[in-house]
Each structure stands twice: as structure tokens, then as C-alpha cells.
Specification:
Elements (H helix, E strand, L loop, with lengths): L1 E5 L8 H15 L3 E5 L29 H12 L2 H14 L3 E4 L9 H9 L3 E4 L13 E2 L2 E2 L2 H5 L3 H5 L6 H16 L6 E6 L2 H9 L7 E3 L18 E5 L8 H8 L8 E4 L5 H11 L4 E5 L3 H10 E6 L9 H8 L4 E4 L4 H4 L6 E4 L4 H13 L1 H18 L2 H16 L9
Parallel strand pairs: 1-2, 1-3, 3-4, 4-7, 7-8, 9-10, 9-12, 10-11, 12-13, 13-14
Antiparallel strand pairs: 5-6
Length: 416
């Protein structure tokens, strides 16, 4: 099978990109031919044969300076002729059997779906966040959990100024989502893949093609992942350092832990300077920041930890941080939002605590660090669950079924 993956970023930026690249490797190992389409970016892999067809790089967080660049960026969010034209050229050359889309919002826009429709290629879209139900994609209103747009429609985002309290930014996102719904821009997608039951329920309540949603968990290939070999260690956070990830809550929780417990933070993101400053102010010298690390180094840091913290204050979908910790044989303490409670079985492979509660987080982490043997046993249970419920072979089988299902609902005018 010839699979064309489409995502705005084509480097290991976060969980969505990690899943995309790991899936492509898995498909290649199963005999599929794989190609990529995305946005031009300085961090992209140099070995992307279709990079010449990618639309130009644009940074939207923060938005570009100047009125003209901002207007151009806003127009691109609604519809990107360069993205449609570029993908059409790649389709003509690569001739995919299916197009598997991921995060196409803003920098690519659903204009890429118009190219797929014209070529009659079946489309599957994995939903890594809540963008199709929530204009700001995180189910957050200025940092607070919110689902107003799920039941009330996307224009609530403008009324509530949910994007950083900004009228203009919130209105742009609201209008973008409203227009795409009015134009039925996502009609060419035959199957919407939801990694978690929570996200699937949100999309169904928002009326996002409920008859086309399939819940397909992510996967972890444990063949090359060593398991933690001895009890003990400290606390690790791994992921994008942004406000919704709650790393600041973890820093506040560190004060409740013994002074000799190692706290490691692996990742990068817009909140890193603020988090560093908070750590120096609240727990000086106790947090080690590693920046963005490659997969092998991340696994080393994970195995050295007694527990991984996922202190998110937003509705996580199915974070790879949890699955990768489990694969290394390390339990997870996560919050009670989104798909996290679907992954963590309290008292078996981790603990679930209220979001935005440093005291509860610190208490749960402290118990596992203090009882290294219990934490080690929970990590073993976590690895067993990964081997049982998230094997790559099962994921490939279910994904192939989704590809076949998408081929049966190619919109009128496309090939069948």
C-alpha cells in the first residue's frame, strides 16, 4: 500500500509528530511505501523528496509582525492555495492509495482535502486534539477547562475571547472553524480516527461526522525498548513545555518531595523561561532541565526515574508520554482530565490526581518515590499493559481497516 502522510510539521515536535514518524517507520517495515507532505520548516528532515512542493514556512505562535503578514497568515488559515497546489503535485507523482492526515490546521488548512477530493484519493484523519470541535483546539478558555463550543458552536470562542483573552485572535479562530463547517471542508475525510474514547465523545457531541469516527488507540513498539531493571529513581516530566501541560504545577509540587529526589524535565516550548524562573524561585537547584532530547536519551531518562509526571491542566487525548513511560516499565501520575484516566489504572500502573493541585500531585509522587519497590511493581504492570493492549500489529490491522472504510466513502466525483 502507498500511504501519503500529511502534517504541518515533519520533525519530532510533540506527541502528534512522534506518532506520525513512528507510524511511518512501522508501515515501511510492514512493506508499505510511505511519503510525506507538510510545511517547509528549518527543523524538517533533510531527506524529504517532496519538500520542493511544500508551502512556505509561517510562524503563527506568535503571529507575524505587521498588518500585511498578519492578513496573509489569516487568509492561509482559512484556505491555502499553495498547500492545495503542492499536495496535488505530490499526489500526481506518488499516486497514493490513501492519504493519512494529522494536524493540517492553520499552516496547511483543509485546502489539502480539496486536492485529495479532486484526485479521488481516500482520506483518513487522525485527530490529535479538539480543533474540529474547539476553535482554539485545547478545550480551554484563557487557561481554564471549557466546552462551550462543543455544544454551542464555534462562535462562542469569539464571544468568550478564549484565545489568550484577545478579541481579534479569538474571532479569527471562531470564523475559521465556522467557515470550514459552512463549506463542509472536511467532507472528503472518510474516517476520523480518535485515539481516545473521550475525544470521540467530544466530537460526536459537537456533530463532527459522528458516523465516521473510529476509536483506534496509539501503539508502542516495545521490541527495541529496554525495561527499567531496578527500583528507585526520581521524577521525570517529558513533553512540550507550554501552559496547558502544567509543568508549573509540578514545580510547585516539588516542594513536598524530599530534597534529595531528582526532578528532571525533558522538552522545550514557549513556557520554558517562565518554568525555569519558577523553579529557581520555589525550589532552587532541584530541577534539571534537559531541553529537547532524542528518543534514546528520553528512554534513558525514563528508566532512571521512579515515576513520570503528566500534570496536564487540559483534556489530554492519548499522550504518548504515558505510553512511552509504560513501555519503559515506569508508572505515571497523571491528572483526571480527558483521556488520561482511560490510560492510567489507579493503584495498578499509576495514580490519577485532580488537575491544578500541587499538593495532591506532590503527595502521589512522594508515595511512589518513597516506596521504590511498589513503584517498580507498578511499572512492570504498565509494561504488561502496553504489550497486551497497544501492540503495533494490532494498530496496523485496525488502521488498514480504517483505510478500507475510507475508500468506501470517497465523495461524489472522486474515484472509487
Amino acid at each position: 500500500m502507498r500511504v501519503l502522510h500529511v502534517n504541518k510539521f515533519l520533525y519530532r515536535r510533540g506527541g502528534a509528530e512522534g506518532y506520525l514518524l513512528d507510524l511511518a517507520d512501522l508501515q515501511r517495515s510492514a512493506g508499505d511505501e510511505v511519503a510525506f507532505f507538510g510545511m517547509t520548516h528549518p527543523d524538517n528532515d533533510n531527506s524529504l523528496p517532496y519538500a520542493g512542493h511544500f508551502p512556505p514556512y509561517v510562524e503563527l505562535e506568535p503571529p507575524p509582525r505587521g498588518l500585511a503578514p498578519r492578513i496573509a497568515a489569516a487568509g492561509r488559515m482559512i484556505w491555502s492555495p499553495a498547500s492545495r497546489r503542492g499536495l496535488a503535485q505530490v499526489i500526481a507523482d506518488f499516486a497514493p492509495d490513501v492519504i493519512h492526515l494529522h494536524n493540517i490546521y492553520h499552516q496547511l488548512s483543509p485546502s489539502v482535502l480539496a486536492a485529495a477530493r479532486s484526485a479521488g484519493v481516500p482520506c483518513v484523519l487522525t485527530m490529535h486534539d479538539y480543533k474540529l470541535a474547539c476553535p482554539s483546539y485545547q478545550l480551554l478558555d484563557q487557561g481554564k477547562v471549557c466546552q462551550a463550543c462543543v455544544s454551542g458552536g464555534p462562535l462562542h470562542a469569539a464571544r468568550r475571547r478564549c484565545k489568550d483573552g484577545s478579541v481579534s485572535a479569538s474571532t479569527l479562530l471562531a470564523v475559521e472553524t465556522w467557515m470550514h463547517r459552512q463549506l463542509r471542508s472536511y467532507d472528503p475525510v472518510g474516517v476520523f480516527v480518535s485515539p481516545s474514547r473521550f475525544l470521540a465523545d467530544v466530537m460526536a457531541r459537537a456533530g463532527v461526522y459522528p458516523d465516521r469516527i473510529q476509536v483506534i488507540n496509539h501503539f508502542v513498539d516495545t521490541a527495541g525498548i529496554a525495561v527499567k531493571s531496578q527500583a528507585g529513581g526520581g521524577v521525570l516530566f517529558a513533553g512540550r513545555i507550554s501552559p496547558e501541560k502544567g509543568v508549573d504545577v509540578l514545580i510547585e509540587a516539588v516542594a513536598a518531595l524530599p530534597a534529595d529526589v531528582a526532578i528532571d524535565v525533558a522538552g522545550d516550548g514557549p513556557a520554558l523561561p517562565a518554568v525555569r524562573a519558577l523553579a529557581e524561585r520555589v525550589v532552587p537547584g532541584r530541577v534539571r532541565f534537559h531541553g529537547r532530547v532524542d528518543k534514546s536519551r528520553l528512554q534513558e531518562l525514563t528508566r532512571a526515574a521512579a515515576v513520570v509526571a503528566v500534570p496536564s491542566r487540559w483534556h489530554e487525548n492519548q499522550p504518548m508520554a504515558v505510553l512511552e513511560a509504560f513501555a519503559c516499565g515506569v508508572p505515571v501520575v497523571g491528572t483526571d482530565l480527558g483521556g488520561l484516566p482511560e490510560l492510567i489504572t489507579a493503584g495498578v500502573d499509576g495514580e490519577v490526581v485532580p488537575a491544578d493541585d500541587p499538593a495532591a500531585l506532590g503527595a502521589a509522587l512522594g508515595k511512589l518515590v518513597a516506596d521504590a519497590d511498589r513503584a517498580y511493581a507498578m511499572g512492570r504492570a504498565a509494561r504488561d499493559r502496553i504489550d497486551r493492549d497497544f501492540p503495533p500489529e494490532l494498530h496496523l490491522t485496525r488502521l488498514r481497516d480504517a483505510y478500507l472504510a475510507a475508500a468506501r466513502v470517497v465523495p461524489a466525483g472522486g474515484r472509487r
